[in-house]
Specification:
The protein is 32% helix and 24% strand. By secondary structure, the chain is an alpha/beta fold. The protein folds into two domains: 6-132 and 336-365, Medium-chain alcohol dehydrogenases, catalytic domain (Quinone Oxidoreductase, Chain A, domain 1); 151-310, 3-Layer(aba) Sandwich (Rossmann fold). The strands form three sheets. Strands 3, 4, 5, 6, 7, 14 and 15 form a seven-stranded mixed sheet that branches. It binds NADP nicotinamide-adenine-dinucleotide phosphate. NADP nicotinamide-adenine-dinucleotide phosphate is lined by residues 52-53, 151-152, 155, 175-176, 178-182, 200-201, 205, 221, 244-245, 249, 266-270, 272-274, 309-310, 357, 361.
Amino acid sequence: MTLPRTCRKWVLAEPLTDGIIRPDNFALLEEPLPELRDGQALVRTRLINLHSRTRLKMSAMAVGETDLANYGLAEIVASRDPLLPEGAHVHWQLAWQDWQVISREEKPIGYAPPTAATRALNHTDAPMNYVLRDQIAKGWPADTVMHVFGTSGTTALLGLRRCGPVLARDKVLVAAASGSVGSIAAQIARAKGAYVVGLAGGEDRCRWVVETLGIHACIDYRAPDLEAQLLAAFPDGIDLFCDGVGGSLTALVAPLIAKEGRLFSYGSSASFYGGEPRGTGNGLRGAFGITPEIEALCEARAIRIECFIVFDHYDERLSLEDELAIMLQAGTLKSLTQVTHGFENLPQAVTAMYERPHSGKAQVQFEG
Ligand SMILES: NC(=O)c1ccc[n+]([C@@H]2O[C@H](COP(=O)([O-])OP(=O)(O)OC[C@H]3O[C@@H](n4cnc5c(N)ncnc54)[C@H](OP(=O)(O)O)[C@@H]3O)[C@@H](O)[C@H]2O)c1
């Protein structure tokens, strides 16, 4: 195959106004690709996941800059590194760019460096950069590979393992059940036999959640009587709350968690989408909505809190991939993605992520 000499790249054309992303905030450039040096490989990006943090990142970007840190799937097309073999697929920190030169020495952008165990597993300096096993990369379509075997599936499963065992007698509430991580957490909890109720934004979204995920019920988190509906759905309290939302939702739900229950706190959609301020103080827990009051409440009621960034536990990646693969094959887990096709449509896909709700993981498939 003739290798390309140039790549196409989306950059910030003009700063956001009032924090709103519009397609004309993006400009398409064509740039020469550098010659491959020892220790480098040339990849063609197949698909990237869109992250709710993009708006925040774009607000801090200078004109002419691209977003360098999208978690994506790419194929190695040429290589001068034996540990990045041609034909292999990688999960990698990728730019808004169709072809890219990569190296195992790249540092993570916006995340902590890998732990020693993760570095030993991946042989790279960034936790999201690694060669995927062929059985995973070639066993499912690109969108499934990036949804289930990317951060969404691994976060959901690791969280449920740490809050586990999830038992058939457990009553589980899953916030953001229509979203990427929540849709997987809800399905896994259901597959363990638990009673599972989701939260989503509006009647249609709730119907979609129940019909698609096969869980028992879904409640509109915007309903004025949300608390009363939760009390009716969980008369004996919530045994496990999977919370990717934070903010006022966490404050409302935390007192409804049963004594000795579990709180799996992994995100802050309320601030990324709902405009609520992200908590400060108390580190990651604070950012995800665990205020000192909630911390005290959980301590008093022996509620276990699990809160982590999944990349810090990527030394467990293979075991998580194995369990997720078995669930996919058994049909107890479905991948739910909303894919925009075509690299040229990336600005519309990013814009749409904030304009209207998406179901499952929002992604851009670069070719076709
Ligand atoms: N800890 C980790 O390692 C880790 C890994 C992955 C993701 N995350 C974090 O987890 C969070 C969720 O990520 P995701 O990829 O699953 O999200 P996503 O696919 O972008 O979906 C967002 C979800 O949040 C819901 N939502 C939006 N605003 C809300 C509000 N004000 N109140 C309640 N629900 C609201 C949406 O519901 P509707 O659309 O139905 O309104 C939707 O279900 C993000 O903060 C992300 O950064 C953390």
